[in-house]
Amino acid sequence: MINSLLSSTKFLSFEKMTSEDLVSIVYCLGCGFDKAKPRVALIKDKRPSDAVWELEEGLSAHYDVVTLDRVQQDPRAADITAMVSECDIENVNLVIGIGGGSVMDSAKALAMLAENGGYLEDYLGPNPRRTIQRKGLPLLLVPTTAGTGSEATKVGVYTAPSGRKFTLGSPFLQADAAVLSGALAATMPPSLTASTGFDALSHALESIWNKNATQLTLDAAIRAATMVLRALPHAYQASLTKAQGFQVCDADNSTISNYFLEDNKNHNENQSVNAVFLNMLEAASSAGIAFSITGTALVHALSFVLSEDWHIPHGAACAFTLDDAYRLQARDRRVKASLEILANHVLSPRNQETDKDRQYLQSDDPVEQLIAHIVGLKTAMKLPSTFGDLGIEIDREQIKKRFERAFDDPKMANSMPQVTQDEIYALLEAKL
Question: Exposure check for the chain: N or C terminus, fewer CB within 10 A?
């Protein structure tokens, strides 16, 4: 179970949460007890999910539930405004978001607008017309993916009417409680497990190479990155096993087994699938706690362009440049020292003795060993490394035109050391 002084959100962890568990949690939040049947706004997406439906049905037996599913990838301000109207927000006692990052961000916005008024687009952009002045409605978040960390953060990401993505941040966006259920995350297909996992890894690493980092946040970020790197291979293997009917030893996918760390392999072999995914959820939430304080950096700044212009899923967009950013940021002495600590946590002497054939052992430098390990994971999980992998046709001149606006993103300025435009363009051109 997660318990951190760095987050005001209360966390509960289950291998499998039942509808009775959810009803009890809502009751303990104390929402609307003065009413005969408190009203709950339930935010989800349109993807069919028996597990989410069962939770919704159980909740509806005790509360007046209005279900809102007008959620798209990178949630649009217009859709959130429509949901505010649909649910009769003035009579809602509690907002629940059950889904991935877009669902949870939508729930945050809905709860906030109920108490602050206006339209979501009023709060977005570098010069917003309105600012968040008060805490929103009571908010409960239940992630079904293990990556965004939205359940642990005070930020949301939204698409303005212009098509630009903006990050909205305020302590008033923080969820009151979050419930982690391994069974819900275990429904992810392998591709989603991989991309959301690398999103979580990006959050943790960008909290390390961040100008806003303190010793406290560095410790949290190193711990979170360690958790992600230990949990993700097992979660991915489990999702492969489910997707392929327990046939995971084909030529393309057998390599993932090389990334099971020996010091926790035996432990995980005895775990249920739900327990494996609960580990990944707790890792993602821990990474969310870290970056909620520091903010993200250049990887996320570049990912926004990929998502805005080509609708690349967020996790894949982060994975695209994560290893390249690692190499640039490791030039800083303080950052390298933190990455060395991380490498020593992840790549123990025992691992090195038992896995002589691993790619990361080609260097004596633990920081280089770790990046080779990350690159190997990325390759084994079939995440994109080139524009061709993303299905994007682009040339050098178009790179400069498309990505120029990333340098106006405040996230870019969080990177330590600072990275020049020429370095970023060279990074991207190498991916042609």
Answer: N
Architecture, CATH, for domain 10-184: 3-Layer(aba) Sandwich (3.40)
Paired residues of 166 in beta bridges: 158
Cα separation, 87 vs 108, whole angstroms: 15
pLDDT beyond 80 at 233: yes
Q: Where are the domains of the chain?
A: 10-184, 188-429
Q: Which residues are paired to 169 by β-bridges?
A: 155
Task: Output the CA–CA distances (angstroms, integers) from residue 257 to 55, 269, 323, 355, in the order listed.
Answer: 34, 12, 21, 11
- Phi, psi for residue 62 in degrees, rounded to 5: -120, -20
Residue 427, pLDDT > 80, answer yes
| Chain segment 283-304, per-residue pLDDT in tens | 999 999 999 999 999 999 999 9
Per residue in 192-228, pLDDT (tens digit) is: 999 999 999 999 999 999 999 999 999 999 999 999 9
Residues 112-146: tens digit of each pLDDT:
999 999 999 999 999 999 999 999 999 999 999 99
Task: For the chain, state the CA radius of gyration.
Answer: 21
Q: What is the pLDDT of residues 410-419, one digit of tens each?
A: 999 999 999 9
Give the pLDDT score at 33.
60
The tokens 């049905």 sit on which residue?
57
- Whether 342 and 420 have beta carbons less than 8 Å apart is answered as no
What span, in angstroms and rounded, lies between the C-alpha atoms of 236 and 217?
Answer: 27
Please tell us whether the domain made up of 188-429 is placed in CATH 3.90.1150.10: no
pLDDT in tens, 359-387: 445 568 999 999 999 999 999 999 999 99
Distance of CA 59 to the CA centre of its chain: 26
pLDDT for res 326: 97
Please state the three-class secondary structure of 270-316 as a single string: CCCHHHHHHHHHHHHHHHHHHHHHHCCCHHHHHHHHHHHHHCCCHHH
